[in-house]
Amino acid sequence: MGAIKTAFLTILLSMTFVVGAFAQETPPATPKVLTDGAGAEFRRVENMHKTRYIEMFLAYRDEKSGDLLAACYNTMFTPAGIPASRDTAPQELVAGLDFDKIKQEYGVLNASLNGPKLWLPDWMDINSGVERNFNGIPAPWVGVLNMGATTGGVSESTPYEPKTIARKSSVGWNKGTTVLLLDDAEGNTWVMKGFQLGLEPKHTFEEFVAKGQAMFKQLPEGWKFRVKKLEKDLIETPENGVATVMPDEHFNVYDKTGPGMTNYKP
Question: Rounded to an integer, what distance in angstroms lies between the CA atom of residue 81 and that of residue 24?
Fold first, then answer.
């Protein structure tokens, strides 16, 4: 895999949870990916729980704000839908990703990978745009992550540090689904959306759930982890089309819940 760095992002967001290549040279003034969301079309995808996926982040500098923005491409939202195997990112194809090549092909500052991960919500409504192909892996545009004024890439994000992503979508966990939650010291609750597998998994999803808070060594003071079986549907619809996301120390990605994000705080 070409010029890969592994570090903390995941946004998600999961941000979060990423490997990638980072360029020092200046890319073309107008990256190919800049308008990939312009003609985005709405669609709903069902039966997504525990689907294996990756996200590709192609980053460029916003001319007006100077912030680093990363166009996000997700393998679960192709017109083909979720395959019977529930694997939208085959291991051998992900392992063969050449980030230097991708960076040059699309004329961006950074090319980064989130995952492979397991998707934990049950369904999602989303606007998906132009479909790009990464080493034989199709993935449509699904949003833009704001990395702020950083000079690095998505993979340089800090665990437990929230970021925002422009995403006009709704995400749902059905009644009866088991969710993994982080409660922070300010009283906010974060729901895990993507469970990190990586190319060399260190533990299974079942092992992670069983060990619970013992899995965490870097939780900020006053934070706690818990597992809950939902008593009613949990629906996330970010206010004004902007979601707040956060990675943990394992590259898992969480979305903020509560007012402006979800119909209730679990």
Answer: 37
